[in-house]
Specification:
- The structure is a single chain.
- With 496 residues, the chain is α/β, with parallel strands linked by helices.
- It has two domains: 226 residues, 3-Layer(aba) Sandwich (Rossmann fold); 213 residues, Orthogonal Bundle (MetI-like fold).
- The protein has 19 helices and nine strands.
- A six-stranded mixed sheet has the order 5-6-7-3-8-9, sandwiched between helices. Strands 2-1-4 form a three-stranded antiparallel sheet, with helices on one face.
- Helix 11 crosses helix 19, helix 17 packs antiparallel against helix 19 and helix 18 packs antiparallel against helix 19.
- It is elongated and about 95 Å long.
- It is a multi-pass membrane protein; Peripheral membrane protein.
- One of its GO terms (cellular component) is plasma membrane.
- One of its GO terms (biological process) is transmembrane transport.
């Protein structure tokens, strides 16, 4: 006799045992969940409810017994785990980005429509209220091509009224989609209201499974004083945005501008007091030297800028390629630590003559010196950034069955981006120093460093100061460029 697929259970656990840190969390546990059923799991804190859900979801291995699930489950975590650098639509689209849109599954817009979040697709998680984040997390689960939905106390952080409204909406979604649903909750009333059956978990065992007969749906929240209070308070509103107050004028640029003006004034006063233009030329003399020799200084500045940029690109790429495996493998970092420390401790001015003997003069040597100067900040930033990625997000990607390359591209690189951009700012400053050091060494590399050195030979302090001012301008310009890029890239993460 052939048994139809619909008649088979969606989830079967037989004699499952789990030990964590030497402690028994689940022991000889048996559980069967019918297709299309809504099962709630309740029990005291520390009783193994979330562990059981992770076993069903394939996030924890069992030490004994067997676990059978009809399709890889979709997971809604208690803290939602929305990626802060993705907007609402992109968060819901994450399963499709990893595995493509499976025929018959919901796309991001369809899933958002089901949870009432279509109008907020372009917002970022930090701009949303807790209830809205819960809706987005549920939409992401609905967008997965799974017939099994696992919910790990997704409403625990919501206020009572919003939680009640979510219970009604979740019930409606379950009736509409027919997905097998397993909910972990501490609320007895919530379990009775939502579930077809309630499993009681205590000390790592299912002590009883009760059939609600949907009786809780007929009485919960609707009788006596509780019903009267609920009517007075109305429905909870979970769609509240967290936005900045309008009309605020940003004056952050004012302090640096005042500082610059004060510095120029002090420079002018000092030049007047010393009254020796061969020691400290006045700002007007420096400006005159700059404008008079612009035809020489500006091409020299462009050459130095090109060398520094190529050095940042080469050193940054090398730092990222080296830093990622070192961040993932602490033993490898410890093994290579003597060489890393030695490379950082060796002044670049010492390495320049060695490169002359190995590679000779020219652009290639200049770029290598600049790249070596830029390497270490990106290397360290990559190591720290990879290790700072939230473990909760790693578990989310495991639940989505991502590959290592997908985790790198969609999680680890975007997650480490704030730290990487900070390292990149420092890298450009060091790359610029490396480029100038090489120009002091290579007479054929006639960049701005060479022009400053030449002006020093002829005791032309005004021209020297003009070259130094251009170097400072170049460094500040790239710092502002990277800061602007950082603000744009990290825009959604910083909304509060």
């Amino acid at each position: 006799m052939t048994v139809s697929a619909d008649a088979l259970p969606a989830i079967v656990l037989q004699d499952v045992s789990v030990r964590l840190g030497g402690a028994v969390v689940l022991e000889s546990l048996n559980l069967s969940v019918r297709r299309g059923e809504f099962l709630a799991i309740i029990g005291p804190s520390g009783g193994g409810k979330s562990t059981l859900l992770r076993v069903i979801g394939g996030l924890l291995r069992v030490q004994g017994g067997s676990v059978t699930v009809s399709t890889p489950p979709a997971f809604v975590f208690q803290d939602y785990r929305l990626l802060p650098w993705r907007n609402v639509r992109a968060n819901v689209r994450l399963p499709a980005d990893l595995h493509g849109l499976v025929p018959g599954s919901l796309n991001a817009d369809e899933a958002l429509l089901q949870v009432g979040m279509s109008g907020f697709a372009r917002y970022y998680p930090a701009q949303l209220s807790g209830g809205m984040r819960a809706r987005v997390a549920l939409a992401r689960a609905l967008a997965q091509s799974s017939d099994v939905l696992l919910l790990d106390e997704p409403f625990a952080a919501l206020d009572a009224l919003v939680r009640e409204r979510f219970n009604d909406e979740l019930l409606h979604l379950h009736d509409k989609t027919g997905r097998t649903t397993v909910l972990v909750t501490h609320s007895i009333r919530e379990a009775a209201y939502l579930a077809d059956r309630v499993a009681v978990l205590r000390e790592g065992r299912i002590v009883k499974v009760l059939d609600t007969g949907r009786r809780g749906r007929a009485s919960a929240y609707t009788e006596g004083l509780e019903a009267e209070l609920r009517a007075l308070l109305g429905e909870g509103d979970s769609t509240r945005l967290q936005t900045e107050e309008p009309g605020r004028i940003r004056l952050g640029w004012l302090w640096p501008a005042l500082s610059l003006l004060l510095g120029l004034a002090l420079w002018q006063v000092a030049a007047m007091l010393i009254n020796q233009k061969f020691l400290l030329p006045a700002p007007a003399l420096v400006w005159s030297a700059l404008t008079t020799n612009a035809g020489v200084l500006l091409p020299a500045l462009a050459l130095t800028a090109r060398t520094a940029l190529l050095g940042v690109l080469l050193g940054g790429a090398a730092g990222l390629l080296l830093g990622y495996p070192l961040g993932k493998l602490p033993w490898l970092e410890r093994f290579l630590s003597p060489y890393l420390v030695a490379s950082q401790s060796t002044p670049i001015v010492v390495l320049a003559p060695l490169l002359v003997s190995y590679l000779g003069y020219g652009t290639l040597s200049a770029v290598i010196v600049s790249a070596l100067s830029a390497l270490y900040p990106v290397l360290v930033s990559a190591i720290v950034g990879v290790r700072e990625v939230d473990r909760g997000y790693l578990e989310l990607f495991r639940s989505l069955r991502s590959t290592p390359i997908q985790r790198l591209w969609h999680l680890e690189l975007p997650g480490a981006l704030p730290i990487l951009l900070g390292g990149l700012r420092l890298s450009f400053s060091l790359a610029l120093i490396g480029a100038v050091v090489w120009e002091f060494t290579d007479p054929n590399q006639k960049g701005i460093g060479f022009q400053v050195a030449q002006a020093g030979v002829y005791y032309n302090k005004a021209l020297q100061f003009a070259g130094i001012a251009l170097l400072i301008f170049l460094g500040v310009a790239f710092y502002l460029l990277l800061t602007t890029l950082e603000r744009r890239v990290l825009y959604g993460r910083r909304q509060r």
